[in-house]
Design brief:
Elements (H helix, E strand, L loop, with lengths): L1 E6 L2 E4 L4 E9 L6 E7 L6 E6 L6 E3 L7 E6 L4 E6 L8 E8 L15 E2 L3 E6 L1
Parallel strand pairs: 2-11
Antiparallel strand pairs: 1-3, 3-8, 4-5, 4-9, 5-6, 7-8, 9-10, 9-11
Length: 126
């Protein structure tokens, strides 16, 4: 079992920055990959970014590439999502998720992730 708790969401103006955190507990954190997803009102959940167990490999959705950075600190059992140059269209509930069946590949498909946090709201105003 893995428990995930996100934090760091909030209201920010377009062009601003936020850093989301996701604290994990349960299984050994360094044993699996992690991902961030988001869901805007009326839309399906979509992939944002993923990272392997060591942080050595990452992947990003095209919509956030160059603006968002995923990272992790295995000593703190925490994964982060640094979001810069935020746009109104980034408004969504952001979820972190654990891909406990993958260690070496940052996979983008939500159905591959076994554990999810409760989500944190990010609102970007114009």
């Amino acid at each position: 079992q893995v428990q995930l708790v996100e934090s760091g969401g909030g209201l920010v103006q377009a062009g601003g920055s936020l850093r989301l955190s996701c604290a994990a507990s349960g299984r050994t954190f360094s044993a699996y990959a992690m991902g961030w997803f988001r869901q805007a009102p009326g839309k399906e959940r979509e992939f944002v970014a993923a990272i392997t167990w060591s942080g050595g490999s990452t992947s990003y959705a095209d919509s956030v590439k160059g603006r968002f950075t995923i990272s992790r600190d295995n000593a703190k059992n925490t994964v982060y999502l640094q979001m810069n140059s935020l746009k109104v269209e980034d408004t969504a509930v952001y979820y972190c998720a654990a891909d406990v069946r993958s260690r070496w590949i940052p996979r983008p498909s939500s159905f591959l992730y076994d554990y999810w946090g409760q989500g944190t709201q990010v609102t970007v105003s114009s």
